[in-house]
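Sample A.
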Amino acid sequence: MAIPDNNIQIYQTEKVDDKPFHMHVTFTDEESNIDYRTPFMRCSSLELTSRAVPDVTSVNEWATMVMHEYFHGFQFKNDGYLDTYETITNTVLPDTLIALAACHGWYKESITQENDFLLKAIDANDIEASKAYIQSFFKSRNERRERVKKKLGIDIVALEQLYETMEGSARYIEYCLYRHFGNFNFSDAKWLYTVGRKYYYATGFNLLRLSDKLEIDYKYGIFKDVSIVERNLRILMSE
């Protein structure tokens, strides 16, 4: 159905399914599907989004969510990124990180501590102070990963780097858009930089912010090598 609006034709179609809300990117390995090995974005309107997420009340807030998903599409259109995603998630289940944080208090505690070290490194006034916090960050991170591998038999390094790169950079886009819109108080947007159930959104975002602060170039290869952000920081610490 076409709804005329001045000189613009707005088309309203039937909903693709009976779900009340969509805000995600999909792709499948089924050749008959429209999203066969290529990102396909599903985003609900502001009206439907507001019903599902009452805190979202403005076009600007809704637009940041849409651009987050759109950026996922950009990520997966980079040569080799989809292959990397499939290789890693075929080895370790995608929900592993969420399950570990939900089931093990020591894991969640370590994640919170690591994120705090990142925030302190970002806020530090000089490079030596930042390096001290980064050193503490990697010490805690290495111990957590080794404990997971030793006690649970799971190597989460590549999966964590994948999701911190993927979701952290998409959150970075939200952050940039909020700043572009203006009237943005970063200290009030704690959900951007503090850990939640999917902690890698915040840790990934803060790793990028820290890299910016230290003037470490990562944008040239972030979707060619998911380890590049973390590896660059480790290189800095070894100098």
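Sample B.
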Amino acid sequence: MSEDAPVVVERPEAGIALVRIHRLARRNALNMEVRRHLARAFGELAEADDVRAVVLAGTEKAFAAGADLAEMADADPVDMMRRATHRLWKAVWDFEKPLVAAVRGLALGGGLELALSADVVVAAEEARLGQPEVRVGIMPGAGGIRRLLRAIGPYRTALLVMTGELVDGRTAAAWGLVSQAVPDAEVEPRALEIARTLAALPPLALARIKEALRHEGDVPLEAALAFERTAFQLLFATRDQKEGMRAFLEKRQPRFEGR
């Protein structure tokens, strides 16, 4: 992918990819071109056997400052349906490998919805996060309300989506909206550190853990417990389970193969 593209894929170290939104002139606003590039990048990384964890980042001033309103201001409902942006987002939503979001600057509207598609979110303490769509006459449309409800409950969700107020990274961490808040300069190094840890762990077990986390709240408790129990049992068919337990008993570092 060209460095002039609005999304750049980097390989900072073995086993890890870094997907960077790089549309500086518009604070990484999510136009259709950015969405298509993201879908293509995540589709390719899903098939890359040498990638075990991914970091999704923006730039210093913005992770992503929301949807590009210049593309939406004059749209009608048919225009929006024909864009079928949910199909493009599925490449990120359905990504089976561990995904860490590194949020600096602004993460607003669709930008926050994109960050919340990750498994782990590391935010700068001074980052600004929110769903301000109501202030331009619309509402979150890519899972923002559902994901916020899961993360921070109905009352804090209502505050954000009904007033359009923003919160900083420290508040977001205190609320449980993000995993961790760190100084700005430490955001990407911390995200890469987490990705490095994840890349060294058994991929099949991580994929099942991710699936169990995503199903939480979607099904009745008994069904969720049954899924978790079955996934746990099936992992005993993997070579990684044998390697992990033998390495523990032999007091050595395991070498996981994803098999």
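B remarks: The beta strands are 7-13, 15-21, 51-57, 62-64, 99-103, 106-108, 120-124, 128-130, 167-168, 180-182. The two ends are 30 Å apart (CA to CA).
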